[in-house]
Automatic annotation (TrEMBL):
This is CoA transferase. It comes from the Bacteria. SUPFAM superfamilies: CoA-transferase family III (CaiB/BaiF). GO terms for molecular function: CoA-transferase activity. Keywords: Transferase.
Length: 416
């Protein structure tokens, strides 16, 4: 079968974002084939370049200037070092916006207006531009002017009230997620919105302004927990590793470790009870249905806990898998990447072609296409690596103009 071109080949994205939510979005678009131009401050670049250790190692084992955090969200992009706060820099951005399909930014609300780089200004010169603003709280509302960060949004948005051990148990209390889930989900929602806007533009011929907020995205991703609140009138509370709506669906301690048992229906529950040698619990009138098991959780779980701790973890997993009961170990990240399924799917990849001549380890995109697969074209760029290339290829600048602009990024003479 002839491989087709990537889905977004021919689409240009002007990336004025930094940290994680915006770069996560633009990395998705880059993986899908878009030409993503990452605009960075000369000298410092994206803040996350310095968020380490760990840093990428050179051939001699020494640290480079490329942090793991930065590398995780910036592959398949080109880096343009430019000071957009200067007249010359802002002028270059306007030129690039005219030649782009999408612009992604995560400045404070109104922060780009003083440079003439806000949506209303740029749509005058490019009505087809899809302009995606990612902020903490959105473009309106009483908190619109405030900055937003993943950790604080996890607290404000409710996640930390349902994450962690129960308050009445040792270790109970507020707990953030182990990864910046608000940023990642916001980046994913922004990706979906941009793809939808590109599709809509095929009908209308017009771009639009996308208003994507960390707070909105965070609340939305709470999913069924929100509806639990809507229907009960009671905010859900921390339940540790148990499920609010399904029982048994939690971590159990075996004699030599821990495993997850995720019983999803009544048939699986009865199979689970037979495996653990307690078929009577499968037919007990108190526990016959999930509704009853949730209501009688405090009676059932201690019985199961006592039984599960008498067996070996891997023996439980083998027996439960044999009868179709979802279960599994709790791996660390290294064990997850060493898992046979991760190896078979190629979840860790090595990208060649870095200017430092080192291999860059990356996590594979989970987006799999049969006809136009994700291509890993270039590793995360070094700061300003493609400045001359972009100015020449996209804007047609002469070598003299490029040299002057790179030497004096804020000089007024650089304005065409």
């Amino acid at each position: 079968m002839t491989q087709r071109t990537p889905p977004l080949q021919g689409t240009r994205v002007l990336d004025l974002s930094r940290i994680l939510a915006g770069p996560w979005c633009t990395q998705n678009l880059a993986d899908l084939g878009a030409d993503v131009i990452k605009v960075e401050r000369p000298g410092t670049g994206d803040d996350t370049r310095d968020w380490g250790p760990p840093f990428l190692k050179d051939h001699d084992g020494g640290d480079t200037a490329e942090s793991a955090y930065y590398l995780s969200a910036n592959r398949n992009k080109r880096s343009l070092a430019l000071d957009i706060a200067t007249p010359a820099g802002a002028c270059v951005i306007r030129e690039l916006a005219m030649a782009s399909d999408v612009l992604v930014e995560n400045f404070k609300v109104g922060g780009l207006r003083k440079y003439g780089l806000d949506y209303d200004s740029l749509r005058e010169i490019n009505p087809r531009l899809i302009y995606c603003s990612i902020t903490g709280f959105g473009q309106d509302g009483p908190f619109a002017e405030r900055p937003g960060y993943d950790f604080m949004i996890q607290g404000m948005g409710g996640l930390m009230s349902i994450t962690g051990e129960r308050d009445d148990l040792p270790g109970g209390g507020p707990q953030k997620a182990g990864v910046a889930v608000t940023d990642v989900f916001t980046g994913m929602y922004a990706t979906v919105a941009i793809l939808a806007a590109l599709q809509e533009r095929m009908r209308s011929g017009l771009g639009q302004h996308l208003d994507i907020a960390l707070f909105d995205s965070h609340v939305a991703m709470l999913a069924g927990q929100n509806t639990n609140y809507f229907l009960s009138g009671e905010p859900p509370r921390r339940a540790g590793n148990a499920h609010q709506n399904v029982v048994p669906y939690q971590v159990f301690a075996a004699g030599d470790g821990h495993l997850i048992v995720a019983v999803g229906n009544d048939g699986q529950y009865r199979a689970f009870c037979k495996v653990i040698g307690a078929p009577e619990l499968g037919t007990d009138a108190r526990f016959a249905t999930n509704r009853l098991r949730v209501s009688n959780r405090e009676a059932l779980i201690p019985l199961l806990v006592e039984i599960m701790r008498k067996g070996r973890r891997d023996d439980w997993i083998e027996q439960l898998e044999a009868v179709g009961v979802p279960c599994g170990p709790i791996n660390d990240i290294g064990q997850a990447f060493d898992h046979p399924q991760a190896l078979a799917r190629g979840l860790r990849r090595e990208m060649q072609g870095h200017p430092l001549r080192v291999s860059v380890p990356i996590t594979a995109s989970p987006m799999r296409f049969s006809g136009s697969p994700v291509q890993y074209r270039v590793p995360p760029p070094m700061l300003g690596q493609h400045t001359a290339e972009i100015l020449r290829e996209v804007l047609g600048k002469s070598d003299a103009q490029i040299q002057d602009l790179m030497a004096n990024p804020g000089h007024a003479e650089n304005t065409p």
